[in-house]
Specification:
The chain is mainly alpha-helical. The protein folds into two domains: about 1-70; about 95-184, 2-Layer Sandwich (hypothetical protein PF0899 fold), CATH 3.30.2320. Helix content is about 75%, strand content about 5%. The protein has five helices and three strands, in the order H-H-E-H-E-E-H-H. The chain has a three-stranded antiparallel sheet with strand order 1-2-3. The mean pLDDT is about 85.
Length: about 180
Amino acid sequence: MSLERLVDEIRLRAERELQEEESKARAEEASIASHRDRRIQEVQSEGRRLTEGEASRERAQRLAAAKLQSRKLVYEARERRTSQQLDTVRSVLRDYADSEEYPQVLKRMYTFAADRLGKQLRVTGRAEDASVLRQIAGKSYDDTPAPILGGLIAETSDGSRRLNLSFDELLRLREDEVRALLAQ
């Protein structure tokens, strides 16, 4: 073997090894690029999914907030209307307290209170009703006026039991029923 041939053989072997290494490098480079592209797509896809999910949650929250706000506005409007109607009911009761039938109602209230609490009563009412209540209750009438729309307040002489038959209290006790009627 000659030296030239040995050098050629070494050079050919080196070129083959170099080509093999270059081919491995290109294959690895392609694999890395493929992996990188796949990973980029995964990240983009995950980003889109997360963004869509977040946007969906945001839409749902805004929609729920809008529905809640609309319910609140409807409730407030209904409450305003009901309050106005209750004020109208109070006005009607005030007017009724000035009617001709009202003294008979006071008499029935006094009779009811006497049946419930006994004959020894202390009765109070509006200042405007003083003369009528004095006729009905006699000495049981207390001159201290009560700030009520109408009706009377009766209590036992010792103050242990009380029966509030004022229009205010009767309306307050039946307010839920009145509200239900007004809402129809």
